[in-house]
Specification:
This protein is mostly helical. The chain folds into five domains: 108 residues, no CATH class; 54 residues; 76 residues, no CATH class; 78 residues, no CATH class; 75 residues. The protein has twelve helices and four strands; from the N terminus they run E-E-E-E-H-H-H-H-H-H-H-H-H-H-H-H. This is DUF349 domain-containing protein.
């Protein structure tokens, strides 16, 4: 500071350069140069000290308001480093003291949090230890994944305990998932052996269809059938195709065998399917009945009876289902048309046959037009509906019902038009 041309409380000017006086263990430091006058230079760097004060004040405010205060420790260290090299004139020690006070506060909080985190992680380790030896793979894997998620969300522990808890937790996870991998590898090996066995039985079954000695082939196919039952389970997606191929081979053989032996196999009809066949026949007769209102009442009874018949999916006859639904739809559409005609045309029965048919056509065309308009409106809101969502599925089912009803009305319309051609205009 000797030979300084201008001296201030916290700095001075010497040889056209501005210096900050040393403080604490830090020596005098050049912080700038005189651009115009020495006093202006000192004033400029005094004003810059306000920036340093504001940065410390803002950090204190941020720490006070923050929930995770410990995350500000790194920012505090960085700010202290910047202050020690900041070009300004002012009283730096009080600012550094304020940072020291904040650092002590944060360090104490971090210590408390690390102890809490250690307690939480040890509890999570105990949870994992309780289930890590389980062979109930799926729920245990889900539970361990949930524990791992909690672990990740838990903050760090003190360095002295970190290796211990992290190592133990990872050991538990690795141990379980390694055992699971080994189990499923063994399962896959067993399944592959079974698949190979099924393929071999299919090959032998097709070979049996080509044997000249039918009696020997018959015994071979019986043996293969018994062997098939002993192989064991495989994934259902593969078992279906395998059994279909095996069934194809045995069916070819039994058809050949029965033809050669003159054996006639009467195909048995499931009693439930037989009951449905009778109901379909009755519903189709009702759809042609003149008293359509009585037919509609009977159709309601048939519908309830149909629902009570529980036919397994693999035995269901789609054509029977479609015929029954179509017959009932036709009955209810004709019944509704009949009510419309009775209401709008009290003297309907006095009209000529051709006039009656024309009236039916006119009313049915109106109903089709109205329902198509309703359907178009419904379809506008159907885009983006998810068939896997219960509420969306209900809306889509309603739309499909509308389409089916329109299709049946159009079928009835075509029948009326043919009747009109027969009756003559």
């Amino acid at each position: 500071m000797e030979n300084a041309s201008l001296v201030d409380e916290y700095g001075y000017v010497k040889d056209g350069k501005v210096f900050l006086k040393g403080y604490l263990n830090y020596e005098d430091r050049q912080i700038g140069e005189v651009k115009r006058t020495e006093q202006e230079a000192l004033d400029y760097f005094k004003n810059r000290f306000i920036i340093a004060e504001n940065k410390v004040g803002q950090l204190e405010k941020d720490i006070e308001e923050a929930q995770n205060k410990g995350s500000y420790l790194t920012k505090l260290v960085q700010l202290r480093k910047k202050l020690l090299g900041f070009d300004a004139l002012g009283d730096f020690p009080p600012l550094l003291d304020r940072l020291d006070a904040q650092e002590q506060l944060l360090s104490e909080l971090i210590t408390v949090n690390q102890l809490k985190n250690l307690e939480i992680k040890r509890a999570l380790i105990a949870e994992a230890e309780a289930i890590a030896d389980s062979n109930d793979w799926r729920p245990t894997a889900d539970a361990l994944q949930e524990i791992k998620t909690k672990w990740i969300k838990t903050g760090p522990v003190d360095k002295s305990a970190e290796a211990e808890v992290e190592g133990r937790f990872q050991e538990l996870l690795d141990g379980f998932f390694q055992r699971r991998r080994e189990f499923f590898n063994e399962q896959n090996k067993i399944i592959q052996e079974r698949l190979d066995k099924y393929d071999e039985l299919i090959r032998l079954a097709f070979r049996a269809t080509r044997l000249g000695d039918l009696d020997a082939a018959f015994q071979e196919v019986r043996r293969l059938n018994n062997a098939w039952k002993q192989v064991g389970e495989v994934p259902i997606k593969k078992s279906g195709k395998l059994y279909k191929n095996f069934k194809k081979a045995t069916t070819i053989f039994y058809t050949k065998y029965n033809d050669a032996k003159g054996i006639v196999i009467e195909k048995k009809i499931d009693p439930r399917i037989e009951a449905q066949m009778k109901m379909v026949d009755e519903a189709e007769r009702l759809s042609r009945q003149s008293d359509i209102f009585a037919a509609a009442e009977r159709a309601k009874v048939l519908l309830n009876s149909w629902k009570e018949i529980k036919v397994p999916f693999k035995l269901q006859d789609k054509s029977l289902n479609d015929r029954f639904r179509a017959a009932c739809d036709k009955i209810f559409e004709l019944s509704y048309l009949g009510r419309v005609l009775s209401r709008k045309y009290p003297a309907f029965e006095l009209k000529s046959q051709s006039e009656q048919i024309r009236t039916k056509i006119r009313e049915m065309e109106y109903l089709v037009k109205r329902e198509k308009s309703d359907l178009q409106f419904a379809l506008q809101d159907a885009d983006g509906l998810d068939p896997n969502n219960a509420e969306d599925k209900q809306v889509l089912n309603k739309i499909n019902t509308q389409k089916r009803k329109i299709a049946m009305k159009e079928v009835i319309l075509r029948e009326f038009q043919k009747q009109l051609e027969t009756a003559g205009y």
